[in-house]
Amino acid sequence: MKKILVATDGSDASLKGARVAFQVARPFDAAVTVLSVVPPIVLPGDAPWAPMDEIHLSELKRGERVLSETLAALGETALNVSTRVMLGPVAETITEVAESGAFDMVVLGSHGKGAVKRVLLGSVADRVMHLCTRPVLVVP
Amino acid sequence: MKTILVAVDGSEPSLKGVRAALDLAKGVGARLELVYVIPPVLLPPSTYAETIKKLEEANATMATHALDKAKAIVAGAGSDCDLITLHGAPAESLADLAQAERVWGVVIGAKGHNAVSRVLLGSTADRLMHICQKPVLIVR
Fold it and tell me: Which sign, positive or negative, has the C-alpha torsion B18, B22, B23, B27?
């Protein structure tokens, strides 16, 4: 266990996931990467006046805010922690980062901010489960 | 002390699961419980009773064999574990056992013996993800 990837969207489950990731990383002195992926905004094609670049920039800023809130909630740690914000389809981007970085474990919340309460497994977690070839830990 | 359930069916991914579970257990400070689930034998009622008995015996032998193989890995890492054999539908039985207060989470191989090679996630792992209310680690 040398490298752990945690995906977060600021939801309760993903915060719990980040806690578990830090806990597992500790005895191995593993490096933890906290990743926030913001989905691209899709607008109808007849809205050409929309300032897409500005919208995406503000979305990336939102991702950074999620990361700093997550780190603040976890408090000070002696671990080697890095953060990353990316724009793209969420499950696919998490999978891509996990595989290209050869992470030993990917930790996800079972559902993020978007999920309906009664479902146990959200769509992003479900999709990563099916796409990713690295071990995936889903935390409810 | 919390425990981590490790689903074992003797397949290669499930043995990998045991190794990953050892790491996870070290991180969260838990003890391992290796679980083999014997699926129900479904045969028409007219089947000769001796045949059913033989099948059940064969299943029990497979369970012991798979659990022993998995236990050897745990022992090799200098750890101890408990062995559990359950009867029932695999994903449902694991999810039910995971409800117990002592259980921290479940580790399962992405594919067991029965999965088609081209799928990344087998049906038991997929189903467990959707019904389990504790963290689940899928290992490949």
Answer: positive
Tell me what pLDDT residue A118 has.
60
Residue A113 at interface with chain B, using a CB cutoff of 8 Å: no
Angstrom CA distances, A26 to A29, B29, B72, B78, stand at 5, 11, 26, 20
Per-residue confidence (pLDDT) for residue B32, from 0 to 100: 98
The pTM of the full predicted model, rounded to 2 decimals, is 0.91
Task: For residue A131, give the chain B residue with the closest CA.
Answer: B120
Cβ contact, residue pair B130, A121, below 8 Å: yes
**Boundaries of every domain in chain B:** 3-139
Chain A hits for B126, Cβ within 8 Å: 129-130
What lies within 8 Å, CB to CB, of B42 at 6+ separation is none
Q: How far is CA B17 from CA A18, B111, B118, B135, in A?
A: 21, 11, 20, 14
Low-confidence residues of chain B: pLDDT under 50: none
Strand A105-109 versus strand B103-109 pairing type: unpaired
The phi, psi pair for A98, rounded to 5°, reads -60, -40
Does the beta-carbon distance from B27 to A126 stay under 8 Å?
no
pLDDT digits (tens, 9 = 90+) for A28-74: 999 999 999 999 887 777 667 778 888 889 999 999 999 999 999 99
CATH of domain B3-139: 3.40.50.620
Domain ranges of chain A: 3-139
* Domain A3-139 = CATH 3.40.50.620: yes
